[in-house]
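Reply to dn_fold:

You asked what the input looked like. This is it:
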Amino acid sequence: MRFWLLLLVGVLFTLAAWAQGGTITGKVVRMDTKTPMAGASVFLSNATFGTTTKEDGTFILSGVKPGQYELIITSVGFEDFSKTVLVGSQLINLNAELMPRITELHDVIITDGANWKRNYQLFVESFLGTSANAKKCKILNPHDVNIVYRKSKKLIQASSYDFINIENRALGYQVKILLKDFKADGINNIISWSGKVLYQELPGSADQKAKWEQKREDLYYGSSMHFLRSLLNGSYYNDGFIMIRLLRKPNPYRASEEVIQKKLDKFNGVNRDSLNYWISKEKQSKYIEDLVRTPFTAQDVVRPTDRPGLFAITFPNYLYVMYTKKREEMDFKDIYRPIDMPNYETSVMTLYKPYALFDNNGIIVSGESTLVEGTWSKSKIAELLPVDYNPNAVK
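and this is what came back:
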């Protein structure tokens, strides 16, 4: 009973704040001279709220959808400023001092044009994806991306000193990403990245904007954002989500992925029999798995926290989430699916920590706390929506 009372208080706080929207104001000055800075970029990372400072260094962001955000302030020649803010109905006022950036010498990596083109293509496929949506995305300043490919580890690493400008004509967004760290592990098939992101609406006709909105809605429904929001408002089951417990342990008869990939490289084009043997090993399941089919409830997995607007998700083993309103079109080799189970869109969430924190926007805000597999893992940059996206907003 106490759980539901605390959760209800948190949700009511969210709804009250949502109706009003939040406002963030402040002033930006140089740290060394304390003089106002005009023209500095101020934005909420992963959202659509952004502005620049006035001549006196002041700024205002209004109508912000409640939730936890990372407020970013950047200016050429200065270190970035970041601060986590929890937006509600009350005014947030903060002052920021930007420190002049000290130029650092970095290792110089010499590569020819062919290698750069190959590395860039590998990066684009991992970062934007290879979907139909990705084909409608274009990086406008590709040479601002620093890319290293470590062939022996099948590892792609990338970063940027300035914003990467991406035109996403599939969803109608201009996406600006300050990429801090990107890794695509080709051996374990894990992609991770961190950075600061600002979404801006692309101009378009009324018909084009309607098509973009329809595409955004298609991506939203069944997404992890939709799932976490539905847990908070208690509509997860009616919305089409079923949560059950996945039991998983490593398959003792399958070699590690690293060993398998090295053997495939070694025998490719050299020894067909050995190559076929290791291909058969690669096709084996990584895990021995089973499902506990008694569905979880929101009370089983969601916990309130002492911070309004922030919640914790926790569960034993692995969380197996099915979205019954869509069928999966991709074959995920490592997603366990019993023969008698319909081919619903299915995702698996793993916790790296005892719990993960998320806000009322449906966004995990505790860094490096979760890993997702299956349907949710398909979403690359080309499919990502701003954290303040609302499919029910008035058009």
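The longest strand covers residues 173-185.
Hope that clears it up.
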